[in-house]
Amino acid sequence: MALEKLQVLHALDVADTQRYHVRAVVIAGMGFFADAYDLFCITLVTKLLGRIYYHVPGREEPGRLPPRLEAAINGVTFCGMIVGQLLFGWLGDKVGRKKFYGKTIMLMIMGSFLSGLSFGNSADGVMATLCFFRFWLGVGIGGDYPLSATIMSEYANKRTRGSFVAAVFAMEGFGVLAGCIVTLVVSATFQARLGAPAYEEDPAASTPPQADYAWRIILMVGAIPACFTYHWRMRMPETARYTALVARDADKAARDMSRVLQVDITGEPDKVESITRDRGDYGVFSRRFARRHGAHLAGAVACWFVLDVVFYSQNILQEGIFSDVNWVPRARTMSALEETYRVGRAHAIIALCGTLPGYWFTIAFVDVVGRKAIQFLGFAMMMGFMLLIAAFYDSLISPGRRIWLVLMYTFTFFFANFGPNSTTFILPAEIFPAHLRTTCHGISAAAGKVGAIVGTFGFMYAAQKADGSEAAETGYPSGIGVRASLFVLAASNALGILFTCFLPEPKGRSLEEVCGEGAEPTIRDDTDVGDSKILPL
Q: Which residues form a coiled coil (predicted)?
């Protein structure tokens, strides 16, 4: 029998797109703008850090970060994100989504600012301090994932919910682009003022002392958008779904949403009590959750893990492509600041041509064709392009054909973002019950960052030539080569297609309908729910 829905939840589901929807997208989206800036800007300055702190006099090539240190600087942020996703995901269900929404931004502000103030008596000391501050930056960024996704999904109407959550995540693309623009402006300004020569002309003068300020400014700018977001986050009311279905305060939920929607809504405390009583308070590790949502969680975790393995491993082609098409020439032919400028410009081109369009295609079509269709398409197209690049790799890197490598590489990014990079963020915020929603999103996101560690560092080593010929230049041991690595990544995409089948399609359905909220059996004993009947409330 169909269950009568809470008036406050029904009002949210059928509401037309209003100013509060746009405000919620901007507030949550600006957090993701800052997240992406802080997370990706370190990639733009790692070469500069190597030149400043690890220059060896007399060497033909400029200094570069030792492989283990480069891995640590990037990996420590991912580790912090895993902690933040699990911790704030759990807290979001225990004490509320809004309660810690401002705390994650504060961690990001402090992490960004203090990263730029990294200090030490030696190069290793500066890098250790940088790693410490970037770990806490990662905790704040990680906490933003489950909270922002859940808040937006619980505020949105069911008709355009996917587009709203996708719009929040799409701000990541603008954050990446902003990082590139800031890097271009800072490096170009310093280079114009200092006029540093190329390394091969004067190794010492090619990295002027003032270059140490450039990377610090680039990192510290990430605190600015986060500062603007803090005030508005603190003014947001708690979501009605948490207040009614988890905190069980029906009257407060009705008051908050009456003010937001500007309509009169009745609290219905008796109905809330009935729904929450019949639902029970089962946890993620209960047999009841395993029966109802275990496959969904397994699918969300596996898809996000596979996606991030593939997504973050694409840097194995990046340096070679940038060099082959002369976007980033040999390091010794440039000064440190010119190299930073060219790296920022190359990343900006990829962001404009592949990253940003993919996000906005998702916004346009996610509520038209559905989340699963886009996820299937993205994994399939990434697999196809990676197989093509791997099959014709030797031909594609030859002069005259490199443009095809660039095009296929760009389309791989496009279908990552018009595909699982967006939908793995959206789906966990829709398919789990309200009292476990941020927890499950945090678990899924944390699995993704484990995949990011595997993709970034595992394939960084795996992509080295098997004959060890690159070891002297890069410092990495021999691996299986780029071509074989691409075949492995293509197979990983096939796993993503398989695990997508585990997920339900939430398009056009209320959150309660998708996850069965309020439609639980009246018998709450975990050992005997399989044969019980669903009764009207």
A: none
pLDDT digits (tens, 9 = 90+) for 71-90: 888 889 999 999 999 999 99
Q: pLDDT (tens digit, 9 = 90+) per residue, 98-123?
A: 989 999 999 999 999 999 999 888 89
pLDDT value at 129 more than 90: yes
State the maximum Cα–Cα separation within the chain, in Å, rounded to a whole number. Answer: 81
The helix-helix angle for 123-155 and 67-94 (nearest 10°) equals 30
Note whether 359 and 417 are within 8 A (CB).
Answer: yes
CB 387 within 8 A of CB 277: no
| Measured distance CA(113)–CA(109) in Å, rounded | 6
Taking Cα atoms as reference points, which of 308, 291, 290, 293 lies closest to residue 495?
308
The CA distance from 483 to 480, in Å, is 8
Alpha carbon of residue 531 to chain centroid: 40
| Secondary structure (DSSP) of 106-160 | HHHHHHHHHHTT---SSHHHHHHHHHHHHHHHHHHHHHHHHHHHHHHHHHS-TTT
Cβ–Cβ < 8 Å for 35, 141: yes
Listed range (173-182, 405-414, 501-510) with the worst mean pLDDT:
405-414
DSSP string, 411-445: HHHHHHHTTHHHHHHHGGGTSS-GGGHHHHHHHHH
Q: What is the dihedral of CA 38, 43, 49, 54, to 10 degrees?
A: 140
Q: What is the pLDDT of residue 314?
A: 77
Domains within the chain, CATH numbers bracketed: 7-270+284-515 (1.20.1250.20)
